[in-house]
């Protein structure tokens, strides 16, 4: 009898403990499977936002891009009291094992793959008719963001277009997205990459309708395209597209130096064609472009006296800099905190392309085409808005072009732009450093990044940049 | 588990000689012979009457015997491998005898789903002496396995109390799937990884009170591990906790207290101010920034260097730690119920300021017999650990980093007593450790019920249900004044990492013995287990009150996140053992596992093993041989798997979290690999076990362990938008020899002088067998067929040009040409981080209650990399950075004058010559010998203690890591690295000295 009772218990236990078929079928809780990742408007929008988010990261605009473009040039240098960040850029001492170029490369290709997935899957996304326009807008943004990724890659990892008309090696073009097949692409030429950028930006200009702050706007697509033509030395297209960009409704040059100054920080100004919005949740902390300039953060990167000296005393833009003694370091150094006033909180908006930049693109292109009056008008528009004492230039020819380039330097300092103006114009510059200055020429191999070792190791089709 | 039967042929003959008549005064004695520690019946024990070998018998299947003898005669019980017992026949007719083995070769070992004698086991198992582990002044029993088990390496890396211990059995058998063994506590597979978010190194294993452990069995070969199927590939460590024994309550009480200091402190000392300033002045002159000493000094003082300040950051960061442990247990019971109840408390202050660990633990193990045929075990334990932790590696708040990196001319405090925040971007190491809170708490609840129901003779049913809940709770707070909490005006983070592991198992066991010759033992089982975790992380900023630092006190809730994941495993298994007369043992296992971690096409895997052993010493030609007391041969081969990969590794995924402008974003996080399948581990083991004169035990295992379908995060072109894809890439082999030797050098039973030695050594050779996609470079490693997996790969350092003082590298692996440009040098292979051999040596001396034991641990070969060289060996390029102090070698060995032969270049202020880049300059020989454990104890004479009704009183002193010798004189750190062979900026391993008292009554 007892045996019977216990057998029943055992039977019950066995039944309870037997597993259903679904026991081994578990689904991830924080991820979508690839096949259901971009299927409707919600996921399409989320996937687009994912690319924006990746641009915010440390090795993209969050830190590297905005720092390197100045540090490699005559604008900034690293203090003798430093934490070792970016020293290899200050010294032109990168190796193929350096971490930052590797991550810059990876993050931009992440963007390209993610944007390509949006573009390639778009046809299969189920959109309600009420979502169609916004959907097209997102498709346009994806093209714009992909162009921006190639643009950063080709500037960081390849010789300037002007070196040889784009004949030298650029970066791989991979627009397949995630197909299930792994790729090991070879490098396209710089010209091919430029064509890809132009094609993507053209698509962007035709699709984008958003004017929301923080999004890649149509004006930004035109503005960037004008800049791409400028780098290509296609002056007339630069002027034409810049005209369109400047003509876009909703944007205007700042009316005063004060307005210019107050545009920095966690807000967008009327000149921002595209700015990345950083919220407190995006906090990169001290490991951000703000943190490296902030004397309460790293404060390692200082502006050169040379840069400080090119501004007139009444130029409001000089006020982003201040002189002071670095704790146990340089005396009467130039701190450059003003464009990132949130500093080590890492919450400053990151300006990707501004209207003043497009004005100066147009000014330079006009000057180079001989339309000096037009060039001077654009130059004056930019310069006079921040300096009440600005007197219109009387320069002509190369002097005028030089003044426009200097104006670019003044306007875009600490925004990661300077080095590319120097290299595309085949300049030689003085690299001011703590201890000894260097004279660097645009064709110095170490002014561009190495192809990362991690890429070289696994991609038999990859060719290293000379010098590495 | 009645596997314990054997019979000697010649005894059969003896027993057949019947005595037809009983002599006067003779009576029939009956009794049972059992094994002392397990209580299992011993079958086939020879029972003889002393002086009259003709009258004898052997025990039957139930361990019972019947013999005719007279009062006053002595019965001799003998059984190969066990100590002979003599018992005088008294007035009673019943004689129950317990026999025990004190030699290694026939102890009881715990194996897959049961226990058995080593002599009946076909697998390879090591069983370290538990006493050495229980009393070692360490938090985690895993740390104490070092040097005590052949074939097992523990890579400690960090001296953080309560740290995770990376255990590896028989070499590196996997790359991206787990390499840690499976841990099974009282039959329940448990998790063993970092818990929570804050601690960089924690484990629920630290919650186990070593004093609760009855035995640790390390299963190594396929025969031993394949019953664990997809989780057995890296070996299995079986922990059995103490059970009660029937009898009156027995109390054990122990206290231990002591201090700890940084070991190898001399190697870690940073430069002092005079040395630093001297170096800087020379660098300035070399650079041309100063003509002479005076000018150089002015240059320095102009820039805030104050040579009068001389901070020893080592002293500022380290402290004398402490170790205190208290333990109380009581056990006992009657025939129906036995109990073991314990409580323990440990408090441990680390050698780095602000670090520490406490553990409170409790356990109740009950065994109850409901009826003759049903017994139930209840095992319950709870522990709560609290770890005060520090960040590691390159983190600004890592205190250890500051020891090596902060310049000595910066004071710790300003003149007004406030923290000097002009260094390290305001991350003040002392403030970070003393003012902030980084607390990682783990509550570990473990409960299981196992029944044993005897259905009929030899047939039992054993169901088990268990639940293991591990709740990690991180409490952190960072003050607003500096560093970590500065940008948020103070913040607090609270994380909850809740892990649940439940298991249901059904076992049917059958054993029987046929025709007095054939033993059969079968276990059939089904098991289902689910591991799930729920992790919630919250952060609130703008919380400026150090005294009120819970989340509710902050004004700016910044983030909250929660994630869930789970994996399940369902298995069927069968274990069959056969033996012939205790001479030949055969074992076969098969297990079929299904795991949720793999794609549905490849979800199930079948694993198996076969093993055989022969007890040659039980054959007649060796029986009675005085020299050879035991001789066994065994061999096994089998296959098991490794499912320790991330839960959804085979899927292509878009993950959330890529949010932008307050809206959720998704981003490609993983590429799919639908064919991703089990890593398969096939192992051959051949062993000889030899006992000589009952004083020397030698076990030699040869093994060949081959892993195929190796799971690896295969690096792919970054243009794919990911850096790697989890793939099955090839195969790997570990071949090796393990030797365990135990000797009783001097044996004196009467409380006299005894000396015994345990020695073990392991040679393991790791080799890549195939890589179908071809050899490839993988960061600083090169993966090539025929070479060890852990082969280093970077530039070869060619020393310093004696004329110019410039660093030189070999242009390529021919090492025929040198260059002074790092970028012009090609990387090439630089040897492996695996040691050639390693092991331990323990000597125990005892005399009249005094016991001295010393364990040495050694490691020979293996190249280890100093991974922070680019900051500590900069040869001047960091100029005056406050985190720019230099390694002692730079000061002592720098090139100064033409003709100097050295490996350290000229010191040039502020110039990056590339010499700090990764090369063999920073690769060192990992050989060391350490005095890992030493103890001296004294047991008070029983005559004295028994008057106070105390059974045993022991006083002891113990030291851990008291001494270490390193072969490579260039090495400036502790050679005991993490598993990757890299020296990281981790908390140094402490040397601990304690004294204590154990009382039992």
UniProtKB/TrEMBL annotation, chain A:
Gene Ontology CC: one annotated term: cell outer membrane
Secretion signal span: 1-21
Pfam families in alphabetical order: SusD-like_3 (PF14322), SusD_RagB (PF07980)
Biological classification of the source: Bacteria, Pseudomonadati, Bacteroidota, Saprospiria, Saprospirales
Domain spans labelled SusD-like N-terminal: 23-230
Localisation: Cell outer membrane
Keywords in alphabetical order: Cell outer membrane, Membrane, Signal
PROSITE patterns, A to Z: PROKAR_LIPOPROTEIN (PS51257)
Protein name per the record: Membrane protein
Gene3D superfamilies to which the protein is assigned, alphabetical: 1.25.40.390, 1.25.40.900, 2.20.20.130
Domain RagB/SusD: 336-468
Family: Belongs to the SusD family.
